[in-house]
Amino acid sequence: MLEKEYFPQKIEKKWCEIWDKENPYKADNNSPKPKYYALSMLPYPSGKLHMGHVRNYTITDVIARFKRAQGYNVLHPMGWDSFGLPAENAAIQHHANPQTWTLDNISYMKKQLKMLGLSIDWDREVTTCLPDYYKWTQWLFLQLYKKGLAYKKTAPVNWCEHCATVLANEQVIDGKCWRCDSEVTKKNLSQWFFKITDYSQELLDDIEKLKGWGDNVKTMQTNWIGKSEGSILKFKVKELDDLEIPVYTTRADTAFGITYLVVAPEYKDIEKLTTPENKEAVEKYRQNAKKLSEIERLSTERIKTGVPLGTHIINPFTGRVCPIWVADYALVDYGTGAVMAVPYHDERDFDFAKKYNLPLVQVITGDDFKEGEVYVEKGKLINSAQFDGLSCEEAKKQITQYAKDNGFGDFKTQYRLRDWLISRQRYWGAPIPIVYCPHCGEVAVDEKDLPVLLPTDVDFSVKGKSPIETSKSFKYTICPKCGARAVRDMDTMDTFVCSSWYYMRYADARNDKECFNRDIINKWLPVDQYVGGIEHAILHLLYSRFFTKALRDCGLLDFDEPFSNLLTQGMVLKDGSKMSKSKGNTVDPDEIYQNYGADTARLFILSDSPPARDFDWTDAGVEGCYKFILRVYRLFSKFQDKIKLNYSFDVKNLNKKDETLVRETHISIKKITNDIENEFQFNTVISRYREFTNAIYDYVKSENDINDDVLSFALLTLLKLISPVCVFMTQEIYSSLGAKNSIHDEPWADYDENLAKTSSLTLIVQVNGKIKDKIEVEQDLSNSELEQIAKNSAKVADAIIDKQIVKTIVVPNKLVNIVVK
RNA sequence: GCCGAUGUGGCGAAAUUGGUAGACGCACCAGACUCAAAAUCUGGCGUGGCUCACCCCACGUGCCGGUUCGACUCCGGCCAUCGGCACCA
């Protein structure tokens, strides 16, 4: 029996408890059904769920439920990206242990997720900060190490003073730390890197294979990898016989126009290249450059500065002797750190040359060339000896080939992507499983000794070094090779390492012998549908793609890309701006659960915008969705005596009114199925829920001519169609109607193509493309019949009186357009 | 500067292959029910015009132009907003 009124709080609690006990959404590794892997980006356990989480997990959950109903064996897991700085900061603030803080948060948020009614297989839950997970993160590090993909080097790296740690390039946004927004400086440190640059070309090439990814993410990755095709040209130094300066250029065609050369302040041979007279000025310039923050340095507005070194290069093409300058517009970590300057054909060089009165030589000409103005357009070569008259593109090839033939150059492909710096000078991360032995040097920890456990005897209040260094038990160990006293690497890994493979672990989460079984992972992966925020477009998604390729090359798996389809959901806004604590415009999911129930939250968060677009949270919208749920419930409670779980009827014997409802039902199934399958357009799915519900209300308006079987068909179909979204309400209704199965175990509804359209249709009649009349007609009339009907219209007759019919266009089942003169 | 996305009523938005622009909802307005309110139900709701009750006419999907019997949809040229990359040689 259905209660007269619906109380979501009470009902949702009831089903939560039942589902918690039963874990009804276990994914079966051995099912014969086709697999479907639906994945949400795993949350960081910050304390409480926010609406962004609710949106993310609801989208994935509806997809998972839809696919399950369609007969797929669905894997829909959840876990916790639980290493990272906030836990450590909280520990410092509250004098708590980061682990305690993190695990408490997880247990609270897990409860919130369950209240949201997600169909997750909780047996596969993964927590990256626990040893049974990070043991394998460390193991994977060692596999990359063995393969030469993890290496240590001393390099100028990004340093965030506030977070007291280094950062990967991807974590520096406009010269600022991605986490705390403070300015990033450079420090020279010895750090661990993953050799993601070995995969630059493959990462770029395979973007094309990612058919199910949005163009925005794909271009962002393409930009980030930053491939450019150019040439290396080497220049002899006039004053130093044994020194050559190679430059990277994409404009080899302008080589005859070189009038000077620029090296970065950090250029390795800069001291050798500086003459004694210039030493002081150069040194001063370099010191100044060092002081500049990344933000200042990167500003394109800044006026270019530089000082000459006193030495010169000889342009091998022209024999011209050109001065070498140091200038900070040359970047040490791109190309070779040295740039050939062609002021007539490059804006930066032009500005610089103007300022320091360096000569200009024109070597390219074109239609809009103007004397004395920089000309960066492509054109034809002049003043370039045997290359005169060539197009720029052709000249690039020929000039580089000439340089190659004569031993002073070659073609070169350059990428902007840098290796991934993974060391962090923080406690709350997976320790890097390396020890340093006075005899053997850098040695990998033996695999059987994993995990290298995080020490607990640490002082979190220390400043200027990682808390881990305060541990007495952690630092000293024994060399796995020779048994001598050795010290551990005191750094931990970037949390993005942990999150680069968690989706693989889900496939085989409880395996304590290996990080995952190869057959099982090959069965489940790649992920069929990944859902998450756009903020990971480069970071997490690029790292995960790299990991997949690297682990493939380590022989651990057999696929090339981790995520076949990617849905980047839009932000959740309130009053036009992103929900954030600082703006005070957040909405607490707990409050929504309490006031309206999770079904309302799920329904609303999907209702107003397509998933990829930003979503504006409004209180009125929530209210409207709540009312809809009650409206549906009322329909069932009012007519529960008429509803038959085993209905049956023959469409041929139905009256017009019944047939219309049957057709509405089929139309709804078709529309909703198509809309989910096509880009997960849940907003239109929900519109159709409402239209369909309205149609049923229409049908029951006069209660005396209701066909119970037809009504049952419509109502039970509506229930199934809504069930992926409003999981509690539909479950409650279905079970109250006496059904043995859960509504969620019932198969998806099928539709009949012939019934999924209205019996009649509205014919549009136009004269010269303007609508003159709308006429109800039967489906599938012939063109001549339609034309005749149109011409019989009085309104058409009025419009074409005194005019001559030029032609008549008939679109079957749609319109007739009469063209007159 | 380069690249990508977006642009439709007061608001969120919808619209297979070009074929009724504004589905569905929010807000608003009116009516029913009520002593009253809430809830619920019914209806209306782009702009302007007219000889104005429901008819009719014109305009209307960022702007300008084109193709077409017909354009939110296709083509050319712009503009604006958001996002990514960027002294990258």
Mind explaining what this structure looks like?
The relative contact order is 0.11. 36% of the residues lie in helices and 19% in strands. With 821 residues, the protein is α+β, with helices and mostly antiparallel strands. It starts with 7 loop residues before the first helix and ends with a strand. The chain is globular, with a radius of gyration of 34 Å. Strands 10, 11, 12, 13, 14, 15 and 18 form a 7-stranded mixed beta sheet that branches. Strands 2-1-26-27 form a 4-stranded parallel beta sheet, with helices on one face. The chain has 26 helices and 34 strands. Helix 2 packs across helix 19 (598-607), helix 19 (598-607) packs across helix 20 and helix 23 packs antiparallel against helix 24. The structure holds one RNA strand of 89 nucleotides.
Secondary structure: elements and pairs:
Blueprint: H1 8-22, E1 35-40, H2 51-69, E2 73-75, E3 79-80, H3 85-94, H4 98-115, E4 126-127, H5 131-146, E5 150-160, E6 165-167, E7 172-173, E8 176-177, E9 184-194, H6 200-205, H7 215-225, E10 228-237, E11 244-249, E12 260-263, H8 270-273, H9 279-291, H10 294-298, E13 306-314, E14 321-327, E15 338-341, H11 347-356, E16 364-365, E17 380-381, H12 392-405, E18 409-414, E19 420-421, E20 423-424, E21 434-437, E22 441-444, H13 472-475, E23 476-478, E24 485-488, E25 492-493, H14 495-498, H15 502-505, H16 518-524, E26 529-533, H17 539-553, E27 566-569, E28 572-574, E29 577-578, H18 589-595, H19 598-607, E30 615-617, H20 619-639, H21 656-677, H22 682-699, H23 708-722, H24 727-736, E31 760-767, E32 770-778, H25 783-791, H26 794-800, E33 805-811, E34 815-820
Parallel strand pairs: 1-2, 1-26, 3-4, 12-14, 26-27, 28-30, 31-34
Antiparallel strand pairs: 5-6, 5-9, 7-8, 9-19, 10-11, 10-13, 10-18, 12-15, 13-14, 16-17, 20-25, 21-22, 21-24, 23-24, 28-29, 31-32, 33-34
Helix pairs in contact: 1-24, 2-19, 3-4, 18-19, 19-20, 21-22, 21-23, 22-23, 23-24
The chain binds one RNA strand of 89 nucleotides through helix 7, strand 11, strand 15, helix 11 and helix 20.
